[in-house]
Amino acid sequence: MGSLFTKIFLAFWLAAVLLGITLFALARLFGSEVVAETEQRLAGQAVSASALWETGGRRAVARWLHNLQPGSQPVLVDAEGQPVLRQPLPRRLARWLPRPMESGTHAVSSAHVLVVAALPDTSPPLYLVNEVAAGHLRILPVWTRFPIAILITGLVSFGLASLLTRRLRRLRQAAQALAAGDLNARVGHHGRDEVAALSRDFDLMADRLRDLLKGQQRLLRDVSHELRSPLARLRIALELAERDEARDKALVRIGKEADELERLIADVLSLARLESGQGQLEQRKLSLGDLVRQVATDADFEAQAKGRTVRFEGGEKLVVFGDAVLLRSAVENVIRNAVRHTVEDSEVTVTLGREGESALVEVRDHGPGVPEEELAKLFRPFARVGEARDRKSGGYGLGLAISRRAVEAHGGGILAENVEGGGLRVRISLPLASTVPVH
Known about the structure:
Number of strands: 11
Number of domains: 3
Structural class: alpha+beta
Shape: rod-shaped
CATH topology of the largest domain: Heat Shock Protein 90
CATH architecture of the largest domain: 2-Layer Sandwich
Helix content: 40-55%
């Protein structure tokens, strides 16, 4: 009784057997009532026929029997079982008549009962005979009926149980394969019932788990790769520091590389927290215009030292509900990325507007752009797309990945597209505060 298959099988089988027993008992009960009613009716008809025989003779009885309801007309026979009137006597009825004739109920077959009633005060004795088809009986004997019923209901129950549990077995096998490390294990779902919905949810879970594990493996691989360069430079700087004439310059280099490592580790931790969904967002109503304007102003100050400028456009007051630090980081990473890649003596445009029920931040640079087939990779951790957008231009490829996770944590979206004539445009959409339910 431990498996679901056994429980379903026995439940269906028991239900079918109980149903058969119940129907059999009810048929027996109502069948007995039919026989009793026939006996009572035939006894009354025998009294009537006897009275007519005394007063009107053979012709009166024949006329009376002819006027009875079709289907319930008895046959009048003598003590030898021969018909007294010109009534046809079916062969099987002649074969079933008791010898000698006697009143009562006679079970003549497994599906028929013969009821005989004697006419009172007639000489020689006469009898009315009527056949009852007992619907509660079966052609097969009792010792044969039950094994066949059990076999049939058992086969039906087995088929139903197999149908219900076959997909559950596939689901269990897929779960075992996934637990054993097969990230490609899937159930496959057909239909619209509960088992199909469960299989569909399992496949979605398996897809998500595979993506998370592969992302984690890629992140560890990329972090290891990115750490090699600053560590190698640190080793060289330490070797130089051992020489008196290069000590000061080497110590400056060591400090710079330590800052780079600290920034890389901070970005990795930030991305890990966002990827795992850990940490509570300190959400409150924010003026997105003030936030973006401040970030653009700070970025412009730094960009001017590199021969570039950042211009902010947008006067509409838009309010969002979110974490100020996280949103500032998301916008700042996008703007700094644009400043890093836009050509010298060019301008990065930061535009704030409204699109439906969302606030829209657009950052457009005048750099080389990104190959169309690599746009989807732009927001992945440690992404390296295009020769002009690599580590030589600064950064480790984590900023835009952090921006994507930060925006998605606020229910928004982010995408990048090439601009005709050159450059890249990044669009950040965030739901306005009026459309965000406050918990």
